[in-house]
Design a protein that fits this description.
single chain, alpha/beta
C-alpha cells in the first residue's frame, strides 16, 4: 500500500507488471519510484536495470547500518516453525529480529529487512527457494553468521530434479556465511549429515545417538504437545513443546542447539520453547465446541502431509482429514499423492475428503471422497461432520 512520502518499487511478475501502477503510486503520494523504463512525467524516479535487484541492494545497504548477528534458516519443511521457535527461545535473553510471517523470498526478505533496528542483537532470516540460485541471492543479502538447515525433502522437484538437487540449492547459503560461526544441521538427514564429514564448524541435532544435541524419552501429550529429554555433552534438560507431533521435536532441538551455542542457560531455553505459539496455518489447534479444528493449511508436501495425519491420529474420537493438492513434485506427482492416500488409510482416518485435480488418485487410494473444488466441498461439509470430530485441514 502506497502512503505519502514512500518509495514505490514496481516488480515485474509473471502476470502483472507493477510499472502500470506508477501513476497511481504518485497520485497516492509516493515521493519517488524505481523504474526499469524511462518515464514521461515530471515526478522523481530512479532508472535501474532491475527493480528487484535495486530493492535487494537497497535492503542490503539498510541492513549494513546495523550489526546484529545473523542466523540464516532454510530447509524443505518447517522453516517458519523453526524460525518462530528459535525466536521464542532466544528472546528470553536477547533482543531478536525475525523475518515476518513467511517473507522468505526474493521480494519478501528485502522487504522484511527494512524493519530491522539498532536495538536488535540477533536477526533470524528465513530463506526459501524453488529453483537454483535463489538462496545464493538471499544469502548474499543476509550475510549469515550462522546457518541452520532443517531437512532436505522431496519438494520443488519439478525445478530441482531430486533430493540431491534440493540439497545443492539449500546449501548455496554456505558460500555467503561469514567466518567464525556454526552450521547447525538435522543430523538424522543423510544429506545434511554429510556436511559433518567435510566441515569442522557443524553442530548436529536429532534423535540418533551420533548427534551433538539429541532427544531421548520422547512422549506424546496428545493434542497438547510433546515432551522429551534433551541430551548434549555436559548437560540434560526436560523440554515440553506445546504443539503435537513427533516432527515438532526437531525444531525444538534446533532451537536448543543454537541457543546453547549462544551461551544461554538451559532453563531459559526450556521456557522459551514452552512459550512458542504457532502462526496461522502451521498446526494451529482450535476447540470450536462441537469440533476440534487442526489448521495446517498453509502448505503441503509428502512429508508434512504424513506428519499432519500423525497429529490427527492423536484424537480419540472421529477423525476427518480435508487434504488438498501438493504442487511442484515433478514426474512423481501421482505417486506421491497415491502414497499419502495410502498413509491416510493406514492411519485409520474415518473420513477423508480430497480437494483439487491432483488429489483424485489420493482419494481413490484412501477410499475417500473427491471434490474438484472447495465450493463443492463446502456445500456438503455441514452434513458430513459430527459433534466430537477432529478436522484436519491440510
Amino acid at each position: 500500500m502506497v502512503s505519502p512520502g514512500t518509495l514505490f518499487v514496481p516488480i515485474i511478475g509473471e502476470r502483472v507488471d507493477a510499472h502500470d501502477f506508477i501513476p497511481a503510486a504518485f497520485q497516492a503520494g509516493a515521493a519517488c519510484v524505481f523504474s526499469q523504463r524511462t518515464l514521461d512525467c515530471d515526478k522523481p524516479y530512479i532508472l535501474v536495470d532491475s527493480t528487484l535487484m535495486a530493492l535487494q541492494r537497497l535492503a542490503a545497504w539498510y541492513k549494513g547500518q546495523f550489526s546484529p548477528r545473523v542466523i540464516g534458516i532454510t530447509g524443505s519443511v518447517g522453516k517458519t516453525t523453526m524460525k518462530e521457535m528459535l525466536f521464542s527461545a532466544l528472546s528470553q535473553e536477547f533482543c531478536v529480529f525475525k523475518s515476518q510471517g513467511n517473507l522468505n523470498s526474493q521480494v519478501g526478505l528485502p522487504l522484511t529487512l527494512f524493519e530491522l533496528g539498532p536495538e536488535h542483537q540477533l536477526a533470524i532470516l528465513e530463506m526459501g527457494t524453488s529453483s537454483f540460485g535463489e538462496i545464493d541471492r538471499l544469502a548474499r543479502l543476509g550475510q549469515p553468521d550462522d546457518c541452520l538447515f532443517i531437512n532436505i525433502g522431496n519438494v520443488h522437484l519439478e525445478f530441482l530434479g531430486s533430493r540431491q538437487g534440493v540439497f545443492q540449492a539449500k546449501t548455496e547459503m554456505l558460500s555467503h556465511m561469514r567466518p567464525g560461526g556454526h552450521v547447525f544441521v538435522n543430523g538424522d538427514d543423510d544429506l545434511l549429515l554429510g556436511l559433518k564429514r567435510s566441515r569442522e564448524d557443524v553442530i548436529t541435532f536429532g534423535l540418533e545417538k551420533h548427534n551433538d544435541v539429541r532427544a531421548t524419552q520422547i512422549r506424546s501429550l496428545g493434542l497438547s504437545g510433546m515432551a522429551f529429554t534433551a541430551v548434549w555433552d555436559g548437560g540434560t534438560c526436560e523440554i515440553t513443546v506445546p504443539v503435537p507431533g513427533d516432527h515438532m521435536v526437531y525444531p525444538a532441538l534446533g532451537a536448543l542447539a543454537v541457543s546453547l551455542a549462544y551461551g544461554m542457560a538451559p532453563d531459559a531455553i526450556r521456557t522459551g520453547i514452552a512459550e512458542y505459539r504457532p502462526i496461522w496455518g502451521r498446526m494451529n489447534i482450535q476447540d470450536l465446541g462441537e469440533i476440534m479444528l487442526i489448521n495446517d493449511a498453509y502448505n503441503a508436501s509428502p512429508s508434512s502431509m504424513r506428519a499432519a495425519l500423525d497429529v490427527l491420529g492423536y484424537h480419540t474420537g472421529r477423525k476427518v482429514a480435508i487434504l488438498g493438492d501438493m504442487y511442484e513434485l515433478g514426474e512423481d506427482t501421482e505417486r506421491y499423492h497415491r502414497e499419502v492416500g495410502a498413509y491416510a488409510r493406514e492411519k485409520g482416518i474415518d473420513l477423508i475428503l480430497c480437494v483439487g485435480g491432483l488429489t483424485q488418485v489420493m482419494a481413490q487410494t484412501a477410499k475417500g471422497r473427491h471434490y474438484e473444488g472447495k465450493a463443492e466441498l463446502w456445500a456438503q461439509l455441514p452434513g458430513l461432520l459430527q459433534p466430537g470430530d477432529a478436522v484436519l485441514i491440510k
